Amino acid sequence: MKSSSFIILSLLILQHFLSFTAGQINYFPIFRCRASAGNFTANSTYGTNLKTALDSLVSASTNYGFYNTSAGEPPYTVSATTLCRGDIGSEACQSCIQSSITLLRQNCPYQMEALVWTSNCSISYSNRTYTSTVSARPNAKVSGTINATNIDIFDKALRDLAGSLRALTAGGNLLRKFSTGDVVYGPGLGKIYFMMQCTPDLSPFDCNSCLSIVFREAQGCCDGDIDVGVFFPSCYVRYSNVSFYNDPPAISLPSPPPMPATSEGKGKSSKIIYVIVPVASVSLGLVIIGGICFLVIKARQKNITSKKETGSAFSTLLMSENKTNSANLAQAGSAEIMDMGTIGSLQFDLDSIREATNNFLDDNKIGEGGFGPVYKGVFASGVEVAVKRLSKSSGQGSLEFINEVILMAKLQHRNLVRLLGFSLEAEEKLLIYEYVSNKSLDYFLFDPNRHGHLDWPKRYKIIGGITRGMLYLHEDSRLRIIHRDLKASNILLDVNMNAKISDFGLARIVGVDQTEANTNRIVGTYGYMSPEYAVHGHFSVKSDVFAFGVVMLEIISGQKSSRFYNQDSIEDLPHFAWKKWMEGTAMELMDPTMVETCSEAEVMRCINIGLLCVQEDVDARPFMAYVLNMLNNYSITLPSPTRPPHYLPKVHTSYFSSSKSVPKSADQSLITEIHPR
């Protein structure tokens, strides 16, 4: 048995050696034996399940080179996955899987979690349930010792090739998220050969995000190296100055124009060290938080009488508002939206909230919105929450408070901030949300000392999160919601920089088959409001699309839309971007801090989509479903945008005949009530 294993190991090593041409580093096989995940013993239940799972992976050779399986029952379940390179046949795939399993069992004999990358395939297993999401652990970064002759030219060619391949890989054949390409990076300097691959079960957006992170890792660890591999469980990139793949490249880029010569003696470009932020599922965590908060609520409620009184007050308030503002709740009546029993289960005791926030101590204040301050609270159980305290002088009255409770309690999506409960006691109106640690998008985006933290992969990920959240509001939730106040300050970022849409005080429910409505009470924020809403009070899902387009352009440029109409010119950000687009200089719109991490093709595509969203013609703006499709599917040819509206001059009275005073708030551009002509 030992002799047989030795022969297999020797043949595999010989195979790897022969697969590399002269001058290329042979860094395979790469092992990750994770002792931190625990160990198992020989002949144990886990060991038996592991053998069963690994044996079934061979079927991947006839399943487009990718397969995941599991064996056994908890707590001894084993999940195993394999991925073969997209340019090898089923016979080579099967051979690689068999030999790699042998190598993995020899090098990681008793670890409950392990992974091996070889030149043609990867094998992994774990005691954790497999999910079709981006996985960043464990990973590997390897490189040779030879640097490019001209690092600046090399890096520019590498970024352009990576951007083109990333779009092709993510948006190509769903069965094979795999592509290769090459580029001559300068006269007499040589050629770059590049390979990318994702597990085929990743969505196009997740594949793009994974490859963006991996390529950023490659630049961070190995800037200027000409033979590099960075491997995640969900995706990988490899590039070299020597061809290492079988088929002709899918993309061959022309040589980039020469760059100015660097100063003598200049070595490698400064390396930027990035911290990998794993993309982790938060669903289980939210369920746990919700359960704990429910227990806290039940334990803290004073008595049944106080609960009835609070519920009765809320019910009376709701019915009163519905009588005077029934049109504002459109076709969804209060009984349809939420029953009083559900309302009662969301009630927090005021005393428990005071205790959690140290009686609304200023040191616990984490934000200041147009409707009042937001405090961080920590309950005795350790659960962290964000408490929105509506100020008595704010523009948000009973109707807006009811809206937030009704809407947020019904809406459940990973890109929406989750409402945990409310309190309506002693003239206090309090909303209790999940705590989102990284504050809001504008906190990073518009601060000259912080916007550098948002490289292009992070910004692209945020754009995707906002898109999915808005699509859920418009089409995928049981209720059709128009947000009406989408802006950078209402986009919160969690610990993994996932976008979460917040602040639903101005949102409106419309009928399931309805996409638009009218109002005499115009609310929102200058710079984000569509012209048909600002002028005529006509709002729709396309009004939200307009605001989304403005936010998208802000993310790309790092500039606040209102910055442009504080100058002598009345030009706003959408019109400025459109002018640059028409002049063929749209890349000048991009935040300069992203130069090192962006793909020009990717940024240009996003500018195009943003401009489509802010077109003056309502019907020409895309629905959010099509926006998501354009982001995910690079085979779609995007239409050319038309001119955005000129409707945001410094003197607002050009478009409004009368207005009531705007309350003092952190956002002075907030409109509370303006009657259209």
Structural summary, described in words:
- The protein is an alpha+beta fold.
- The chain has four domains: 2-126, Killer Toxin P4, Chain A; 140-253, Gnk2 domain, C-X8-C-X2-C motif (Killer Toxin P4, Chain A, 2-Layer Sandwich), CATH 3.30.430; 284-434, Phosphorylase Kinase, domain 1, CATH 3.30.200; 441-675, Transferase(Phosphotransferase) domain 1 (Transferase(Phosphotransferase), domain 1, Orthogonal Bundle), CATH 1.10.510.10.
- 35% of the residues lie in helices and 18% in strands.
- It contains 18 helices and 26 strands.
- The strands form eight sheets. It has a six-stranded mixed beta sheet, covered by helices on one side. It has a five-stranded antiparallel beta sheet with strand order 1-4-5-3-2. Strands 12-13-14-16-15 form a five-stranded antiparallel beta sheet, with helices on both faces.
- A hairpin with a 3-residue loop joins strand 4 and strand 5.
- Helix 1 packs across helix 3 (90-107), helix 4 (151-171) packs antiparallel against helix 5 and helix 15 (541-557) runs antiparallel to helix 17 (600-613).
- The chain is globular, with a radius of gyration of 28 Å.
- It starts with a helix and ends with a strand.
